[in-house]
Structures are given as structure tokens and as C-alpha cells.
Amino acid sequence: KEVKLWGGRFEESVTDAVERFTESISFDKELYKQDIMGSRAHASMLAKQGLMSMSDRDSILQGLDEIERSIENGEFVWRTDREDVHMNIEAALTDKIGEPAKKLHTARSRNDQVLTDFRLWCRDAIDKIVARIRHLQVSMVILALKNEGLIVPGYTHLQRAQPVLLQHLLLAYVEQLERDAGRLLDCRARQNFSPLGACALAGTGLPIDRFMTSDALGFTAPLRNSIDAVSDRDFVLEFLSANSITAVHLSRLGEEWVLWASEEFGFITPSDSVSTGSSIMPQKKNPDPMELVRGKSARVIGDLVTLLTLCKGLPLAYNRDLQEDKEPAFDSVKTILGMLEVSAEFAQNITFNQERIRKALPAGHLDATTLADYLVKKGVPFRTSHDIVGRSVALCVSKGCQLQELHLKELRTISPFFDEDVYEFLGVENAVKKFSSYGSTGSECVASQLDYWVTKLEIK
Ligand code: ARG
Predict the structure, then answer these.
(1) Residue ranges of the Fumarate lyase N-terminal domain (predicted)?
(2) For the chain, N or C: smaller number of CB within 10 Å?
(3) Please, what's the b/e burial string for 125-153 (b: 16 or more CB within 10 A of its CB; e: otherwise)?
(4) Ligand 1 contact, 24 CB (< 6 A)
(5) Alpha-carbon dihedral sign for residues 234, 240, 243, 244
(6) Catalytic status, residue 278
């Protein structure tokens, strides 16, 4: 058995079970690129500071290049007995270039190394997620552009409430996604600080330059406190929190589209390319991708809860428990990327059943609130007008008709404030036209929202 990199004081090697239980190479090899980047920056800094010769640095840099290539070719052999990604790469470098490699771990611990890798990885992951959020936003705006003027029932309590423009409703999701991206970018700015050089926890007496490595790796600055640098995982907790909120937004979108695709709603028809069938019921065509978007949000939330639970009992500084931080983060990122991709594809592959939606619009007295506003314009206090319209709706319910089908005579038996012009406010088409407040579903307001997004998202 090979002697461990930390093997000096040990007389016995670890048991096979302990080796299998404590390894992290099976998952942290995901960090190889960031680990190599960190080592390049560290070696260059050590040479500049006179802690290794320029020629040692050059052979380290060359060796790292070769290792990176062999990992990418799939030729590199990851060894469980070398525990984690850091020791696998360092030991492979020693195998390759010999003595100079032994200087690489000067003024560095795996504790600051793993965090350097992990922060770089999260930064990269945030950029990928934000790009997919943008893509979904664009898909939603394009879907809105395709359905200009379409009125749909707006719901509260899943009961018909007021008529809204479909564009308005789709743009509500675009707004949510904008905040999701904003949260990720805030988190990115807060997490982009360098732990490298914090060493095990206390820093070092060797003359390193943490600002140099921080710059080389694109961090804003080195973290101020070495103990904090190796202890906390709040940067990834914040990241997974942001992912969880995005996942909840996508899950709600999934729920909405699953409902809309049902026979009962019948608002949308997903194309075959985003639907799946049943192994027993030949007629079935199910919106499974959006059901799974809803379902997979559970994993993203679970990943956050795993990490919160992992951290809650730990004293300063590094504890081995923290090795368990990576898999939830990897899973959260992989899952949210898939959810965003499939949601965008779904948005690109649904058609709104305009005729069917139009036919269903008269149900549910969607124009009742607009009618109450009509009376307010006539000088009736809102509470009174609410009551008058409530009684008008009750009359409709008893007659089985819509508000616009009541005769003026009938309306006047309820209130003398009703006039001939009331019919300009009734019916969903008329009702929608009456909205004018900032952010409302009025067609001009929605058009200006749409313009805003078309410009902001650079949609041609
Ligand atoms: N694989 C470890 C992790 O992911 C690296 C740090 C190990 N440090 C240590 N002192 N054992 O956290």
C-alpha cells in the first residue's frame, strides 16, 4: 500500500472500510479543473515570493497541464486510496515530475484548497444557471408575443377572479425569474472572495501573497479572516437557498401548466415532443416534463436542508463533516439546470387553445369587479357598490345568466345608479379594457411591460 501524503506519524494503514467510508474522490473529482487552476495560481505565487524556484514552478505548471489533459481524455486514473481530488492530483504530479511537486503544498492546506476549488466551482455554476434563467425568460416573452390580445381567466383560490391578458400572466413569471437571477448574482458577488492562503485555519508565517492568488483566480479580494475562510459554508448555503427559491417558482409554473393541459382546463396543448404516454392507456398524453419540474424541486429544497443540517452543529474551524457539502451542491446545480432547460423547451412547445379559452370566458362573472368600479365612478361608495354588484351576481346565478345579459330595468331594481353606459363595462373584453393602473392588465400597461422585456432581454 502507498504511504498517504499525511502518513508520517502513522504506523498502521487505515482499514478498507475506513478508506471507503472517508473517500471523496468518487464525487469531488468534479472539482478537478478548479483544483488545477488553484494550484497554478499558488505555484506562481510561491515562485514570485521566493518560496520555490522558477524552474520548479515551470515543471509544476507543465505537469499540471499534462494532468488536466489526461483527465479530459479520460486516461487519468482516480485512486480511492488517494482519498480526494486534491491528493489525487498532487500525488499524480509527484509521480510525473518528482521533487518539485513536493513544494506545491507549501503554505497551503486542503482546508483552504477545497474552499478555493468549491468557490470557483459555485461561481461557474451560478453563471451557467443565470444563462439558463435568461433563456427561459426569453422563451416566456416569445410565447407572450405569439399570443397578443388573448384574454384568460385570472384566478384566486383557483376560482375565477378577473379577466387578465395572457401576456400579463406570462410576464409575471418573467419577473420572478428576474429576481431569481438577481439573487444568484448577489450571492456570486458575496461569495467571490479567496480563501487560498488561510491554510489549515491560522494562516502562515511564510511570506505568501494572498492578494496575488486572489487576483489570479478572479476573486475580488482575499477573505479577511483565515478561520472564517476555512469554516463557513454560508456562500453555498446562500447559493442553494437561491436555487430553492428558483425551484419553487418553476414548480409553481409546472403546476399551472399541468392544470392548463388537463381536459378540465384545456388552455394549452403541449406538442408531442414534450409529452409522454402511458404503458397501459393508449389514449394518454401526459405533460410529464412539467410534472417532473414540480417533482424535482423537492430535491433542490432537500439539498438545501441537507446542507443547513450539516452545518448547524459545527464548531470552528474545519471539520470533516464539511466534506459532505459537495454532493448536495452538485445535485442542486444539476437539477436546477435541467429544470430550467426543460421549462424553456416546454414554453417553446405549447400552443394556447384560443377558441376554447374564448368560449369559456363568460363563466364565473369575471367582470363583476369592473362593474363595482363603474358604480364608484358614478359616485357610489365602494362598499355599497360591492353589495349592489353582489346582489346583481346573485340575480344572474338565480337566472343562470351573465351580468351583461341582465336588462337595464332589472339592474335598476337593484340600484338607480345603473345607466345605459353600464354595458360598456360588461363582458370580459370590455372589462379588460378598463384597467389602467401602473402594472395592471390593461393592454397599454401590458404592452409597455412587454417592450421593457423585449429590450432588456434583447429579443429580436
Ligand atoms: N476532502 C476534504 C473535504 O472535502 C478536503 C479537506 C480535508 N481536510 C482534512 N484536514 N482532512 O472537505
Answers:
(1) 8-302
(2) C
(3) bbeebbebbbbbbbbbbbbbeebeebbbb
(4) yes
(5) negative
(6) yes
| pLDDT value of position 145 | 97
Of ligand 1's listed atoms, the one at least distance from the Cα of 84 is 1
What gap in Å lies between CA 392 and CA 384, rounded to an integer?
Answer: 12
Cis peptide before 131 (omega within 30 of 0): no
- The pTM assigned to this predicted structure is 0.96
Distance separating alpha carbons of residues 190 and 242, to the nearest angstrom: 13
How far apart are the C-alpha atoms of 300 and 296, rounded to whole Å?
7
Q: Which grid cell is 186?
A: 448577489
Task: For the chain, give the number of residues.
Answer: 460
Task: Report how far residue 352's alpha carbon sits from residue 138's, in angstroms, rounded to the nearest whole number.
Answer: 18
- CB-ligand 1 contact for 84 (6 Å cutoff): yes
Burial class (CB in 10 A: 0-12, 13-18, 19+), 282: exposed
Residue 407, ligand 1, Cβ within 6 A? no
Task: Render pLDDT for 365-419 as a digit per residue (tens, 0 to 9).
Answer: 999 999 999 999 999 999 999 999 999 999 999 999 999 999 999 999 999 999 9
| Cα distance between residue 164 and residue 431, in whole Å | 9
pLDDT at 397: 96
Phi, psi (rounded to 5 degrees) for 155: -115, 145
For a mutational test of ligand 1's pocket, the pick from 84, 86, 116, 121, i.e. the residue with the most ligand atoms closer than 8 A to its C-beta, is 84
pLDDT score, position 7? 86
| pLDDT at 8 (0 to 100) | 86
Prediction ipTM score: 0.96
Q: How far is CA 117 from CA 88, 112, 130, 252, 393, in A?
A: 14, 9, 20, 34, 64
Tell me if 82 CB under 6 Å of ligand 1: no
